[in-house]
Amino acid sequence: MTDQILTLKEVAAYLKLTDKTAYRLASEGKLPGFKVGGSWRFKREDLEAWIEDNKTKVNGESSK
């Protein structure tokens, strides 16, 4: 399976955030995720695209 699904704890570790910060960002719609039975899940490829998109915004460029 090429689409790896991550839990909130795994995403927090991957992005070097606290669990609470990752949860807040997901709840606010700032992290690309979805809920399964009340628990957050994230596709690794969506997170990598989100990182690239936000990286260019920080540098003052637009990827669109």
From TrEMBL:
Q: Which InterPro entries match?
A: DNA-bd_dom_put_sf, HTH_17, SinI_DNA-bd
One Gene Ontology MF term: DNA binding
What highest taxon heads this organism's lineage?
Bacteria
> Where's the Helix-turn-helix domain?
6-54
Q: Give the Gene3D superfamilies listed for this entry.
A: 1.10.238.160
- Pfam families reported in the protein's UniProt record: HTH_17
Name this polypeptide is given: Helix-turn-helix domain-containing protein
Give the source species. Shewanella violacea (strain JCM 10179 / CIP 106290 / LMG 19151 / DSS12)
